[in-house]
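Reading a protein record of the kind used here takes only a little practice. To see the layout at work, look at the sequence and tokens printed below.
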Amino acid sequence: MTVGNARPGDRMRTALARLPRVDLGVTVTPCEHLSRLSAHLGGPDVYIKRDDLAGGPLGGNKTRMLEYVLGKAIADGADTVVGGSAAQSNYSRQLAAACARLGLECHLVLRRIRPSDDVLQGSLLLDRLYGAVVEMIGDDRTGQTSRLVELAAELERRGRVVYRAPQASDRDKPLHAAAYASGALELLDQTAAAGVDVTHVYVSSLDTTHAGLLLGLRSGGSAATLRAISPNERAIFPDRTIEEEVARLATEAARLLGVSDRIVPIDVDTSTDFVGERYGAITEEAMEAMRLFARTEAIVLDPVYSAKAAAALVADIRSGRLGPDDTVVFWHTGGLPAVFAYADELVVE
């Protein structure tokens, strides 16, 4: 309910405005109606939130987070950042780009998950172009974290002031979620201005993006169902489920922002049904979704994240889970460079 000139979510907006933040070129990303895709699928009206454009044409959803995360790093006096994920990680690529823009030294420890991951292509090529110092290891998350901890300590012994990004530290994961709470409020402002009543939001996310969107939608007064499609075939958290982790992060982000919204695991709608054999695997359903979006709307999805969320959207329309009275926003998280890194595996008929 709006009181006077106040809007739902204004307390969160005020808290977000007080957080340290750097400018990485994230403006309000478009929210567009996909009329040809909607007609082709014959179900609900489908809109797209273009966070693939956050921070530029090779940006993506992580840049929205990095404006806050690196704002904190700079406020803390950091001159060096360490982090890492998979070899074609969008987070690592956007981290390397942000560090280059801000004059921070960037060190990445990246996991090989495919035989071709040593080929200088896609995000890995861009990491090096942006000037990141890259070290490659096997597909071992525990080993990766250990190496990042060691690397951060080595750099500090050389006199560097180090900020630890994922996987080096999970300390600021609630800040990543807070950034996406801001994104949810941005979407609600756009749809309210357009007179669109959103019933569902689909996104590819394991944890922080999901947590932030869920918190932001709740704080902004939206009753929309958020359905997150995990890129991982299982929870990677040793002592909790994905639902428990998302709820934890949303609650921590609410505490950070001084809002009273409380998220519990039963509020969390997440699916691992569209991953395929493992993280990073190509699936037939994802390929079909990539072709559908490309050939009806000239929208390019990536095969690891956004295409799998799109596959879930298509499946839910065809099964009747989503009907013609629904209005859906598909949240495009980016990842365009992965299309080229996966070229040998993609089936384009």
